[in-house]
Amino acid sequence: IPTSFYCNKRGHVKSECWHNPQNKGKQVRRDNKAAGST
User: Fold this and answer.
1) CB 38: neighbour CB atoms within 10 A?
2) Which listed residue, 16, 19, 25, 32, has the most CB atoms within 10 A of its CB?
3) SS3 category, 10
4) What is the per-residue pLDDT across 17-34, written as a single tens digit (0 to 9) for each?
5) CB environment 20-34: b (16+ within 10 A), e (fewer)
6) Could you give the 3-state DSSP secondary structure of residue 37?
């Protein structure tokens, strides 16, 4: 399980961390697997 070194939460990495101000505006989310597949 990837762990974010920015907030120490598991399930994502620092580049995907929503606590990282560098990622503001990107809104990286991996739990939208059903999006677009109807």
Assistant:
1) 4
2) 16
3) strand
4) 566 566 565 555 555 555
5) beeeeeeeeeeeeee
6) coil
Bridge partners, residue 10, by sequence? 3
15 and 29 in contact (C-beta within 8 Å)?
A: no
Read off the pLDDT of residues 9-19 as tens digits, 9 standing for 90 and up: 666 666 665 66
- How far is Cα 22 from Cα 7, in angstroms, rounded to an integer? 13
d(CA 24, CA 27): 7
Cα separation, 12 vs 8, in Å, equals 9
Return the amino acid letter for 34: A
